[in-house]
Amino acid sequence: MSAALSMTTAPATPGLATAADPILSVRGLSVEYEASRPGFWSKPTRVQALRDISFDIRPGETLGLVGESGSGKTTIGRAVLRRIDTSDGRILFKGQDITNVRGEALRKLRRHMQLVFQDPYASLNPRMRVLDIVAEPLIVHGIVRSAEEARDQIGELLRLTGLPRDAHDRFPHAFSGGQRQRIGIARALALKPEFIVADEPVSALDVSVRAQVVNLLQDLQKELGLAYLFIAHDLSVVRHISHRVAILHSGRLVEIADRDTLYENPLHPYTEALLSAVPVPHPRTQRARKRLIYKGDIPDVAHWPTGCHFHARCPHATERCSLQVPPLVRKAPDHQVACWHR
Amino acid sequence: MAVISPAVPTAAAKPRAGSFSALAAELWHDKAGLFGFAIIVLLIVLAFIAPLITPYDPALQSVAARLKPPVWMAKGSWEHLLGTDHLGRDVLSRVMAGARTSLIVGVSVVLLAGSFGVLVGLFAGFKGGRTDAVLMRLVDIQVAFPGLLMILLIVSVIGPSMTTMIVVLAITNWMIYARVVRGIVLSVRQTPYVEAAEVIGCKPARVIFKHILPNLTSPLLTLGILEFTNIVLAEAAMSFLGLGVQPPATSWGLDVANGKDYIFVAWWLITFPGLSISVTVLAINLFANWLRVTTDPQEREKRFARAKAAERRRAGRTAPTPVEA
Amino acid sequence: MDAISEMPLLEVERLQVEFDTRAGIVHGLRGVDLSIRRGETLALVGESGSGKSVTAQAVMGLIDVPGRIAGGDIRWKGQSLLKGDGPRRAKDIRGKEVALIFQDPMTSLNPLITIGAQIGEVLQRHLGMTKAQARIRVLELLEAVGIPAPPRRAAQYPHELSGGMRQRVMIAMAIACEPQLLIADEPTTALDVTIQAQVLELIAGLQETLKLSVILITHDLGVVAGLCQRVAVMYAGRIVETGLADDLFERPSHPYTQGLIRSTPRLDDRLERLVSIEGAPPSLLAPPRGCAFEPRCPIAEARCGTEPPLAIVHAGASAACWKPSQPAWRDVPASAEPAPVS
């Protein structure tokens, strides 16, 4: 807990801005999906994917967002980027409410927030040259008229992302997975955004290439002062890259804290289970760790339980947990948790 | 900052160079596809130069030379290679001229129905929601409506002619394009690079034409060619029923219809136009199959590997025996 | 008795697998040597394209056009499965004495048949059980792999089960014939961490109770650390290092292994920067003549242009490197003091 308290006076990492206003604030965000339409005229059944999500991201900061499949982490990323509509709550970007921004205003907003994709193979149009791919954002925003005009500018981006100088005129298939991910990052950076949603940017890459891209993202953050929403399921990578970490379970944030506090002093039983389930790649250490393996499955998005979504698997659960939803409560200046027993 | 060594050559990188000669070599290896291709080329050439090389005017009647058998038969003569019909018209000339009709009708209908169907499919797939539902129900309704009845209705109102036939066939054949295109658009819309285009701020038109449409070319090419065979058959059927091409113009279907009364006295009257229809349809199917495999990288790779494996077996290399077949 | 237990259960010797592609012959395996004894757990670690899955497929006789075995031998209890009447013998062994589980259980389960019937079919075909016998055994098996309420589950179809449950069904099917060797090809890659922990625990438990030998194929070093006694690291179609797990993680010999371990972020470390292995694995269309890792190796020198043999480095460990055990990556401290993890 002492680590958490010290957070109030000093930033955990040099790159982190202290008093700056958040670049992104999410308040009470909920998202519903149309699951299926029973008939042509009838109202579609709706499934709630996210419920009451609130968090901030400060300029130059990385917020790691961790969750298992079906937890809604990708949905948060898409909602923040205004790719999908919210059913409740507000999204503020640099103090401006963007919850209902549409059309041309939304297109303008794209210059400030970008997305890095998970799959480096599917996220690049195989029929376009690297130059055309990276220059497309500049063209569609009217900054340059043609890809050729942007050649020098793109060259600079390619250098920044560690791509070979002659990459311009080649097609994506001529590159390896790691290099393609660099092309995707270069495209995201072309408009000089301040905020990037990175949706599992390294999980599709090979182990030996992951570190390249993680290091690149960190270097770019230092150089350009970017803020990241880093979505991942791999807690080890998240610890490495994030300043703060949010844990998502079945559409709700269960814990959010600065990195070291969360990893060293987790409060929510789900966070504990998650951390203990991640194997450490070192046999002796791994054998010595105590592991909490909870029985049961992750609840399905269409049939969420009442109360705390984790209560069926939680060893501390009481009757209250199965009836009432625990609110996200601030336990320390930079540590919030949603649990009745902590 | 990381500097990456020049890209590794991947399997997909190489065959780009000299892709035309590579394609030709691949077609040469696939004999069925080659046969199809040859017949299609012949058909196209015939259609263009038929008026120049037909030995007789296909509509020229000659009472003196009625029902002459082909040249190799006892009473055949070199003047009429494939014989003559009941009005003394040269069968060879008529078959050649018929190719022209088939090609014109086939190509026009495919283009007309194709463009309409593609537009509907694109619109439905991209808009989604209720627009999609309404458009696709329309498609369902028309698919469920008997095509022949529709043709009879329209032709009996407007009267038969080549133009009518083209329009009518287009009206009854656009639905498949709409369905196929909508399906592809729906799946391509899900691909990350289309999402990427939207996230960087591309307008819908750019997303559709730059990122979605190119994915349609090869499936549409295959579909169009296969549909062409349907149209050739439909044209023959309509002309056979007297709803299509009207004399003095010629068509294979019309010739089969004319010849059917003489089937026991002059078998060549329906055999040659009929054979032309069958061979054309077969050839196009063979070629379309080759094309489908060739435009699908995975299928193409498989075909190559199978050919290679067969080659190895023939060579009977006595390297380690392969484990199971 | 001793002699039998000493004899390796499975030996793979100089195994070569080639694939015909339009771009040329891809040398998938370029001489793989491997052996596993009774009751042993061996991890086969490598990136995509390194040949780890191809090795498993070759052992299971699943190499089909475009692939073919171009050289080498596979021996089961000392008898060849490739030469003489080996292929015929292999049919009886595969699926019965050697079982395989895949990464994605959904693709290997028939969606139209209940899981009970699918497991029962294996029992009837391989062990000649009657339907009634099989039904009883199916319930025992489902119980053994930790599926709650076996009678109800046996009547369900694969799509009614969660990913973790499906993988348990696959494991039940694999152990149905009481195999001596279980090959698990990325068994937990598609699963979430908490579910992954459950499945790994299950495999470890079964290994103990059934005295199974296990070959675990994975790219995740963490999974290896928790489960395996011995590790073989593959790179570009060859095994570059083998050794006891504890030893290999403590003092890796091959520069690639060193890099792999140091580029993997750990839950319990606070490294500011990961080691990054630059570049990408070589194309196997034209594999390098010498050491395949040479272009990416920071300590490569002239003699690395010729292929190093897999030679013993120290007791129980071998590496294919001319300069084994030399520290290859200097730019980052070997290991920071481990941070506490809950």
UniProtKB/TrEMBL annotation, chain B:
ABC transmembrane type-1 domain residues: 99-288
Transmembrane intervals: 34-53, 103-124, 144-172, 220-245, 265-288
Short name of any one Pfam family annotated for the protein: BPD_transp_1
InterPro entries associated with the record: BP-dependent_transpt_permease (IPR050366), MetI-like (IPR000515), MetI-like_sf (IPR035906), OppC_N (IPR025966)
Membrane topology (UniProt): Multi-pass membrane protein
Biased composition (Basic and acidic residues): 302-313
Record region (Disordered): 302-325
UniProt GO cellular component terms: plasma membrane
Name of this chain's protein: Peptide/nickel transport system permease protein
SUPFAM superfamilies linked: MetI-like
Keywords, alphabetical: Cell membrane, Membrane, Peptide transport, Protein transport, Transmembrane, Transmembrane helix, Transport
Protein family: Belongs to the binding-protein-dependent transport system permease family.
Keyword Kinase: no
Species of the source: Prosthecomicrobium pneumaticum
BP-aspect Gene Ontology terms: peptide transport; protein transport; transmembrane transport
Subcellular location: Cell membrane
From TrEMBL, chain C:
Record domain ABC transporter: where: 10-261
SUPFAM superfamilies: P-loop containing nucleoside triphosphate hydrolases
Membrane-topology annotation of the record: Peripheral membrane protein
Any one GO biological process: transmembrane transport
Chief place where the protein resides: membrane
UniProt KW keywords: ATP-binding, Cell membrane, Membrane, Nucleotide-binding, Transport
One Gene Ontology molecular-function label: ATP hydrolysis activity
InterPro entries for this protein: AAA+_ATPase, ABC_Ni/Peptide_Import, ABC_transporter-like_ATP-bd, ABC_transporter-like_CS, Oligopep_ABC_C, P-loop_NTPase
A GO cellular component annotation in the UniProt record: plasma membrane
Family membership: Belongs to the ABC transporter superfamily.
Full protein name: Peptide/nickel transport system ATP-binding protein
Organism: Prosthecomicrobium pneumaticum
